[in-house]
Amino acid sequence: MAKEIKTKSTALMLIVIIAAILIIINLISLNLFSRFDLTDENIYSLSDASKDLVSELNDRLTIKAYITDDLPAPHNGHARYLKDMLDDYKAYSNGYLQYEFIDPVKAGKEEEAMSYRIPAVQFNVFRNDKTEFIKAYKGLVMLYGDKQHILPFIETTQNLEYELSLAIKKLTTTDIPFIGFTMGNMEPDMTQGLTVAYQLLQEEYRVQFIDLDNVRNLPEQLDALFVVQPKEKLSAWELYLIDQFIMRGGKVSFLFNPFDINVSQAMVAPVDNGLDNMLRSYGIGVKDSLIVDAQCNVIPVTRDMGGFRVQSISQYPYFIKISNFNDSIPIVKDLNSLDMLFVSPHDLSIPLRENQTREILFTSSDMTGSRAIPVDISPEKK
Hints:
Layout: H1 2-30, E1 37-38, E2 44-45, H2 48-55, E3 61-67, H3 75-91, E4 97-102, H4 110-115, E5 121-127, E6 130-136, E7 138-144, E8 147-151, H5 160-172, E9 178-182, H6 195-204, E10 206-210, E11 224-228, H7 236-247, E12 251-255, E13 259-262, E14 267-270, H8 276-281, E15 289-293, E16 296-305, E17 308-322, E18 324-325, E19 338-341, E20 362-363, E21 368-372, E22 375-376
Parallel strand pairs: 3-4, 9-10, 9-11, 11-12
Antiparallel strand pairs: 1-2, 3-7, 5-6, 7-8, 13-14, 14-22, 15-21, 16-17, 17-19, 18-20
């Protein structure tokens, strides 16, 4: 049971950290890019951010959509949706954006599609009372100068504008964002535990690991700093450098669990990483407790019954389901649910400085309580 909780806890922590890193980096890159919306008549319209982005093009951007004609539903609808979207992009591009739809088989351009790593895929089609398999293409390439961006397969139209505008931003940006990760306080090794996030970041960003205790200043070109899960206390000098970076307009993301979860003994104890006082000065505080919620997930629990080990499913109130999101915040407004394990409540009673603001991204349900630390987290104690 302890191993099951530990595995789930570790996996969720890594997922949350990776997601948070990529979301924040995209927000930095896109300057709070707002995703598409629909008009009251449900007609597609580009966001203002996408209109501004494409209107600033100063060179030819060519989009080649390698899409087979007469695709089965729902893929045929995706093709029409993409064409309408590209028409809007083109209308705001001052003539710099051009696109074409190509059926690789009919046009004899299968090799061209493959040269852009756009593969042929197999679709099931029901015709003449039987199922047939057809070879088809459904991807695109964006060409800008000597650079290119490929979407090998467009699976859905959800977030398609976001993906296209993010690609345009990357193609047209000459300055590569520079991000840093603190090290030296038992942070997770990005090249091991967070390998996926590290590889994705290296593709688009300049990444540097910074031991704050061994530098006089943070690099002036640094766009953002990430403090990820430090297990040891940061020194006064490290805190000073972080504070000075914030004071001069730098962006800092603190991603950590303030408690040490001993799964084998089913106990939780506080971790002193030295960040508490500084975060409180910015109006951020974490209470010494864990949230329990009747709106929770289930976990497998193994028990001894009459000499036999029996596994059953049990609700686990520390594994909460989030469904209340702040619709005014772009990074969470389109989420339907979020699962979180071992979560602590924020202390909203901390006063804010002048010109400071604090926004809540999401909240637990109305059936929420809390358990003070230290606490027994075994399923039997729920």
